[in-house]
UniProtKB/TrEMBL annotation:
PANTHER family, per the entry: SERINE/THREONINE PROTEIN PHOSPHATASE 2A PP2A REGULATORY SUBUNIT B (PTHR10257), SERINE_THREONINE PROTEIN PHOSPHATASE 2A 57 KDA REGULATORY SUBUNIT B' KAPPA ISOFORM (PTHR10257:SF59)
Coiled-coil segments: none
BP-aspect Gene Ontology terms: signal transduction
Family named by the database record: Belongs to the phosphatase 2A regulatory subunit B56 family.
GO cellular component annotations of the record: cytoplasm; protein phosphatase type 2A complex
Keyword Cytoplasm: yes
Recorded superkingdom: Eukaryota
Entries under SUPFAM superfamilies matching the protein: ARM repeat
Keyword tRNA processing: no
Name this polypeptide is given: Serine/threonine protein phosphatase 2A regulatory subunit
Subcellular location: Cytoplasm
Sample GO molecular function, one term: protein phosphatase regulator activity
């Protein structure tokens, strides 16, 4: 393969000894290059195949940065970047071993260079850096070619993740990109032309990678791009919102939701007050619907943190958030119900009295069903609300409305719930409410008994009606085998 590539490349007219005289010790201390790699014929063949030295004014990419004058280091930097623009097949470990090691050593040199406060990056250097990263990360290893495990319709938490065989190179490229973006030598006003919307979109697309190491690197990169390039912030927010919309309403599959939410957790803390309408729309139309998928447990912690940050920024949002959770309440998924209850308890700890009064009736109607849940964890979690001092204060202030709503559920539990722990918790809550307002509880008991008597009476009447119909039917003559056509 390399011979075919070499035959198509432009030939360098310099004599071989000129290169060795310019670089007698090049690469002697670099990992993976071997001893005196510049004079090594195999290394020169690999270098020539990967990058023809005649392209950049005679700068040989195998030279070490310390071996060239400061004025030439940026050109050498570009040469080394071009050297790393050739990608290899890592599915076969025995293929192109020497060339892979040469590229890896060069990537390490580039990483070291950008980490050591280099001079200001020129626009050609920025272009070459973005090109090298794009070729290695976007074109050759697109996320569509990797398997995906996390879906909202399947429980794949026990599956082993798939690790990319090219990670020995990819990791260095990602580390390079992080250092490059955060370097003080990179001016945002110059770099924004190349770290553009297309580049950022491809970064966001890569979050669907199954490799968790890659997603961690991408999280660091996107966060730093967001911090450095203020001009791109609205675009990043919009693009990530689109990923969330697609995940919830279309594909139901994405591996990087937790990482994207983790980035936004810190982004939300930086929002200025009062919150822009754009940010509120992101909460209502992106974050709240993310409670819908069955795979909520994979990213629940990050999602809950984002929602809490919004409410801390603007406490008036608490009521609308709780109504949104009630809208997506998981009727048939008990594990998700426990998560919802945990999140609502956190919100109730910071909600204002005014906002609480707006949502207390639908909220406690839902809690009433949770208290009577046959899944003991759901019932326990709902009963634990009464151990929270802040929630107890809210209830006490609005007990005339709330206690009549929840007391029947407590009575039903006390009479016939199968779980002993739930039964004990129910009795404790009843005692607590009785101490809060004994007269109101006695009225609730009286109303409950009246309702039960009415229900019993209705059941008896229904039973009598059915018995009357059955008796009347027995008195009718049997029609034999005659078929009767009944029409409306």
């Amino acid at each position: 393969m390399w011979k075919q590539i070499i035959s198509k490349l432009p030939r360098k007219s310099q004599k071989p000894d000129q290169d060795s005289s310019r670089n007698p010790n090049s690469g002697s201390n670099k990992p993976g290059l071997g001893r005196d790699s510049a004079s090594n014929p195999a290394a020169k063949r690999a270098s020539a195949a990967v990058f023809p030295a005649s392209v950049i004014a005679g700068i040989e990419p195998l030279l070490a940065f310390k071996d060239v004058p400061s004025s030439e280091r940026m050109n050498l930097f570009i040469s080394k970047l071009s050297l790393c623009c050739v990608v290899f097949d890592f599915t076969d470990p025995a293929k192109d071993i020497q060339e892979k090691e040469l590229k890896r050593a060069t990537l390490l040199e580039l990483l070291e260079f950008v980490s050591e406060n280099p001079p200001k990056f020129s626009e050609p250097a920025i272009l070459a850096s973005c090109k090298m990263c794009s070729i290695n990360l976007f074109r050759v290893f697109p996320p569509s070619s990797r398997s995906r495990t996390i879906s909202s319709g399947e429980n794949d938490n026990d599956d082993e993740p798939t690790f990319d065989p090219a990670w020995s190179h990819l990791q260095i490229v990602y580390d390079f990109l992080v250092k490059f973006v955060t370097s003080s030598s990179l001016e945002a006003k110059v770099a924004k032309k190349h770290v553009n919307h297309a580049f950022i979109l491809k970064i966001i697309d890569l979050f669907d990678s199954e490799d968790p190491r890659e997603r961690d690197c991408l999280k660091a990169i996107l966060h730093r791009i967001y911090g450095k390039f203020m001009v791109h912030r609205p675009f990043i927010r919009k693009s990530v919102s689109n990923v969330f919309y697609r995940f919830v309403f279309e594909v139901d599959k994405h591996n990087g939701i937790a990482e994207l939410l983790e980035i936004f957790g810190s982004v939300i803390t930086g929002f200025a007050l009062p919150l822009k309408e754009e940010h509120k729309i992101f909460l209502w139309k992106a974050l709240i619907p993310l409670h819908k998928p069955k795979s909520l447990g994979v990213y629940f912690q990050q999602l809950s943190y984002c929602v809490t940050q919004f409410i801390e920024k603007d406490p008036k949002l608490a009521g609308s958030v709780i109504m949104g959770l009630l809208k997506y309440w998981p009727i048939t998924n008990s594990q998700k119900e426990v998560m919802f209850l945990s999140e609502i308890e956190e919100i109730l700890e910071v909600i204002s009295m005014t906002e609480f009064q707006k949502i207390m009736v639908p909220l406690f109607c839902r809690l009433r069903h949770c208290i009577n849940s046959y899944h003991f964890q759901v019932a326990e979690r709902a009963l634990f609300f009464w151990n929270n001092d802040q929630i107890l204060k809210l209830v006490a202030h609005n007990r005339q409305v709330i206690l009549p709503l929840v007391f029947p559920a407590l009575e039903i539990n006390a009479q016939k719930h199968w779980n002993h722990s739930v039964l004990n918790l129910t009795l404790n809550v009843k005692k607590m409410l009785t101490e809060m307002d004994e007269a109101l509880i006695l009225a609730c008991i009286s109303n409950y008994r009246e309702e039960q008597e009415k229900l019993s009476t209705a059941v008896e009447k229904r039973k009598e009606v059915w018995e009357h119909l059955e008796n009347a039917a027995r008195l009718q003559p049997i029609a034999g085998n005659i078929a009767v056509l009944v029409t409306n």
